[in-house]
Structures are given as structure tokens and as C-alpha cells.
Amino acid sequence: MKGLSSYPSIRIKQIYSCCPSEVWKAISDENALKKWFFPVENYSFQEGKEFSFWTGEDPYLTFHKCRFLFIEPLNTIEYSWELPNDSKGISIVRWEISEEDGKTLLTFTHDGIAHLSDARFRIDYEYFSKKWNHLILNSLCEYLYKNLAVIDVLY
User: Fold this and answer.
1) CATH code of 147's domain
2) What was the pLDDT predicted at 68?
3) Is 3 inside any structural domain?
């Protein structure tokens, strides 16, 4: 198996047929995140603030702790990504949005996965890549288009 330190960042780019403010709301609003991401707890969307969530199922529940490092409204969100019950490491998650030909380009990056290599469960590039691809290319898409369909019907 390839060493974790040699893995590149996970980078996913996706274009959505909606305006940047809709994508921004999906990746920054607590209620929206609970619908497509994870049931976030103690969420306060401002730099320096932490939030947390659990993933998995008993007996393999994993606690995640994140701290907002940088927020540029309607453009960038960056936060730390920790698994404090399982690893001493910290990685960084970054979401960037921009308008492109009337659509929205989302660029997602997860850096420093190797720092989580001391986790008590098998965690590697493929694991994170599979999970992030599902969240961004399936769950987020489904959330955005479901909400847009409701908006289209109302207008």
C-alpha cells in the first residue's frame, strides 16, 4: 500500500446550474448542511468558531471536530478537520465557489490527509476520496436540485 504521506490533496471540481448564492447557502448554512452533509452541532459560522459532528454507526462512530480558519463571504470557506478521539492529526478542508458562464463552479480541496494516518481505523486517500466524491457529486447535487425544483414550481 502506498504511504499516506505521498498522497496528493483531494480536489473535486463540480459545476452547478444555479447561482453562487445557492451553493454558498448549501455549504455554509447550518440547516442546509444537516440535510446533505452531516448533522452538525454547536455551529456558529464565523472564523475561529468550532463545530462538530458524528459519522458512522455503532460501534464505529467517529467524532469530527472542525474550526473555521477563513471565511470570505460568497467565495471561500476553510476549516480544520480533526478526529480527536482517533487521531492526533489535523487536516484542512477548503470550499471555493465562483461564477462561470451563469453557473457556479465549486472547487473542493482536502489537504493533509496523511496527518490523520494514526487513526485507530483504516483511513487513507481512497477512503476520503470515495466519501467526498459521494457527498459533493451526489448528496450536494441532489440537495441543490431538489431545492431548485421547489423554487421553480413556486415561480
Assistant:
1) 3.30.530.20
2) 98
3) no
Long-range contacts of range 88-92, CB-CB < 8 Å, 24 or more positions apart? 88/118, 89/114, 89/115, 89/116, 89/117, 89/118, 89/119, 90/115, 91/115, 91/116
At 118-135, the pLDDT tens digits run 777 767 788 889 999 999
Tell the residue number behind the cell numbers 425544483, with chain if given.
149
| Alpha helices (runs of H) in the chain, residue ranges in sequence order | 20-28, 30-36, 125-134, 141-154
Write out the residue range of the structural domain in which residue 117 sits: 8-154
78 in a domain, yes or no? Answer: yes
Number of domain units in the chain: 1
pLDDT at 4: 42
Strand partners of residue 16: 104
Query: What is the value of pTM for the model shown?
Result: 0.87
Q: Is residue 27 part of a domain?
A: yes
Count Cβ atoms below 10 Å from residue 155 Cβ, excluding itself.
Answer: 4
Residue 2 within a domain: no
Cell numbers describing residue 148: 431548485
Cell of 140: 450536494
Quick one: CA torsion of 118, 121, 133, 71, rounded to 10 degrees? -50
